[in-house]
Amino acid sequence: MNRFRNLLTLLTATSVAVGLSSGSAGAADEFDKFALQSAGASLSSTQAGAHADLTTTFELTRDSGGVPFAKARDIDIALPPGMIGNPQAVPRCTTEQLGSLPEDSECPVATQVGITAVRVIDPVIGTFVEPIYNMEPPKNSDIVARFGFIAAAYPTFVNLRVDPTDYSIVASVEGAPSAAGLLEARTTIWGVPADPSHDDLRLTPLEARQGEFPPGGRPAGLPPAPFLSNPTDCGLERELTITARSYQLPDQPSTMSAPFPDITGCGSLEFAPTFTIQPTNPEAAAPSGIDSELTIPQNESPQGRATSVMRSARVSLPEGFTINAAAGDGLEACSSEQVGYGQRAASHCPDAAKIGSVEIEVPALEDTLRGGVYQRTPEPGNLFRFWVVTDEQGVHLKLPAQIELDKATGRVSTVFSGIDTLGGLPQVPFSSLRLHIFGGPRAPIATPPACGTYQSRYELTPWSGKAPTVGEAPMQITTGCGKGGFAPEISAGMRSLRAGSFSPFTFTLTRKDGEANPASLEVHLPLGLTARLAGVPLCPEAQAQAGACGPESKIGSLTVATGVGGAPLWVPQPGKAPTAIYLSGPYKGAPYSIVSVVPAQAGPFDLGLVVNRAAIHVDPVSAAVTLETDPLPQILEGVPATYRTINATVDRPGFMLNPTSCAPKQVSATVTAATGQVAEPTDGFQATNCAKLPYRPALQLRLKGGTRRSANPALTAILRPHPGEANSRRVSVALPHSEFLDQSHIRTICTRVQFNAGAGNGAECPAASVYGAVRAWTPLLAEPLAGEVYLRSSDHPLPDLVLALHGPLEFTAVGRIDSKDGGIRNTFEGLPDAPITKVVVSFQGGKKGLLENSTDLCAGAAHRAAVQYLAHSGRPYRAGVPLRAQCGKGKKKKHAERPRRR
């Protein structure tokens, strides 16, 4: 305000000179010589915060005859930051009271705030002294204050505006009378206008015209009150800048700066702010807004010194108060262009970017400033920030603020550091600032999970250079105290439950608001729920780590709900990058893995890709599938990832396959919370229409080698199930009496400890315990499994026959050897509910052969094995399978398989 008044005075002087002058300007070819010749500024005291008188001077160039080169039209006087005035401290004169002529002016003497002396051509050089009055500013304009005076016969106004770049004051005389002949002006704005020391200079425009001063002085008639205040910073070098424009060449302004007096004594200034803050919602683990108020008591004593202006502020919410991810849903942002940063213009931020409101009490303004708080457009490395905006009473405040998040804990700190070019907040005093951040379901703050008193910490730094004011402000959480625990639920299943059919699979984990947050997850699929991996290109390891898999590896997608309250944020949002689930290769000892990629995008925010790997473990005996995720991210760029729902849908066509068993099963999960608690939710699962599945597997048994009694032929067994039929749960083969076990050929047996040692699946078994080879084909895999046939120690009298298959998956089938009606029987029980195309088991013969003929195989009737099958659907099947031996001249003796009654 002081700056405004000084500028006003100078501008007033200019206007008076313009009004009184009727002299001619210089020659037309010398208009371009119109310029400021000198400029100056002085203070009656350089004490910081003192209510000193401000005097400004300027002089225009003139020709050899003492005449200005052009007629002055506009004069702008820009005060330096921190030079402040308070027009509310002095009564105002209306335009009607000022009048149009000196004899008509009726401005009250109490409204005079200074005096100006101007030197003009009229047509001879003369100096005129005029009183300057505090005027009513026009409504609904960018003029924050106005001064007025009578310049000869012309009422003249000085308009004070706020410079939007540094929030300093610019005083302007605009459109001075064309008969101007201004040469120079000296203007003084009083620091305390009602002070008796100014009584001798209180005069009316008529007295000024007549050159008469009131004898004995004239009192203001009201108690003294501060009108101007010196800056409260002693470290800046300041300047006063004056710009003059002529009527003849208005596009060629002349600008001159003058040093401003150095400010001293900042250490003696007061600065005693108080700060309060509370959540709008006192409920634990809930969305909340914030109500805060900063109060800075102002010293309004005319003999005192102004309170230091605040340079910066930092407020840190207590541990446990974090950003609520749900706030990003539907949120927009306001750019520098939209807010009109650095412009004397109203902001045009989107309504969807508004997150709060603000009220500011500024002593220099007539009413409370009211405005909004808007989300600011994020930048890389600078995501969370906002604008404090108000466009009232001629003030266009666009104050940037930063939100800093502790990336480990999520603790929220709000920083008002001001404008970089200023080195801090605008040097404009305010007595209070009330900031309200909206509450509601999508409020930006999440409260702690427990009730109690929490302490916010604040640090408020003054421009005076003194130590910051540091303190704590309590915040209360008083309701919803019973939340907690950890009991997540799951819902899972195939879209179609028809047995043996392909269908999309969905898995959904839900967690109640306020419960502990999931930190890791294991999903146990029911027996028989498998996937056809064949035909799906695996995402390469490098791309899997980066979440940059190609679409050829995609098998599904995810949706995730996060945040607190009744309206969590769902990712992906419409129009944002999609999520994806990809199939990848070995990971953490598992043969396959899935890669989940979730772009963390919400509203204007992009926190990057969240990539999570899950190892796919396949049980080597039952083929049951377990997915084990990496630790779920708990915080992203300082924003807690509070999982409310995690939904995974695997919908690649022909990928997920239903079991052929309709027995009741379940999908189960092992969920570990960030607090260490463990939950094991389940959901029922049961396929349908199993009875409609056909079941008639075919087995071939071939002997190669000696056919005579006591010979040891090699045996090859080939199992060929039919496509689309139920999978076998048990297969039992009882060889005819023509074959028995030659125990003298049992070289050694692998123990269970040896079988499971090392990499497992027989890798450490003695070589002599291998008695054959096995190969198996399944439509689920792109390549067959192959391995060895072992004799392994058993709980039964005879060793077990174990098929150890290797390849993309490791699989073990255990057959129990026993005797059936005096013959050899081998039974594979508990086979996986997975489709197979063919299985070939080859046993050694000769000196390594386990079988011995009890008769001549080529003599007499065919020898048949009794085979009993049981499908996972529950359907049995029996068949008599002939042993095909090499009889005659190397030809096989062929016998057809004979089905048996079921």
Characterize the structure shown.
By secondary structure, this protein is mainly beta. The chain folds into 4 domains: 258 residues, no CATH class; 208 residues; 202 residues, Uncharacterised protein YcnI-like PF07987, DUF1775 (Immunoglobulin-like, Sandwich); 207 residues. The chain is built from 6 helices and 60 strands. Strands 28, 29, 30, 32, 33, 34, 35, 36, 37, 40, 42, 43 and 44 form a 13-stranded antiparallel beta sheet that branches. A hairpin with a 7-residue loop joins strand 19 and strand 20. The longest helix is centred in the N-terminal third of the chain and has 19 residues. It is rod-shaped and about 155 Å long. The N and C termini lie far apart (105 Å). The N terminus is likely disordered.
Summed up, what is this model?
The chain is mainly beta. It has six helices and 60 strands.
Question: What's the SSE blueprint?
Answer:
Layout: H1 2-20, E1 36-43, E2 54-60, E3 72-78, E4 84-85, H2 95-98, E5 112-121, E6 125-135, E7 145-151, E8 154-162, E9 169-173, E10 182-189, H3 205-210, E11 228-229, E12 239-246, E13 254-259, E14 274-279, E15 287-288, E16 290-295, E17 310-316, E18 322-323, H4 336-339, E19 354-361, E20 369-375, E21 385-392, E22 395-405, E23 412-416, E24 432-437, E25 445-446, E26 452-462, E27 469-477, E28 489-494, E29 505-510, E30 518-524, E31 530-531, H5 541-546, E32 554-562, E33 569-571, E34 580-584, E35 592-602, E36 605-618, E37 625-629, E38 635-636, E39 639-640, E40 643-650, E41 656-657, E42 665-673, E43 678-679, E44 682-685, E45 698-704, E46 714-720, E47 728-734, E48 739-741, H6 752-756, E49 770-777, E50 785-792, E51 800-806, E52 811-820, E53 823-829, E54 838-843, E55 851-853, E56 864-871, E57 876-884, E58 886-887, E59 891-892, E60 898-900
Parallel strand pairs: 45-57
Antiparallel strand pairs: 1-2, 2-10, 3-9, 3-12, 4-11, 5-6, 5-10, 6-7, 7-8, 8-9, 12-13, 14-16, 15-25, 16-24, 17-23, 17-26, 18-25, 19-20, 19-24, 20-21, 21-22, 22-23, 26-27, 28-29, 29-40, 30-37, 30-42, 31-41, 32-33, 32-34, 32-40, 34-35, 35-36, 36-37, 38-39, 42-43, 42-44, 45-46, 46-54, 47-53, ...
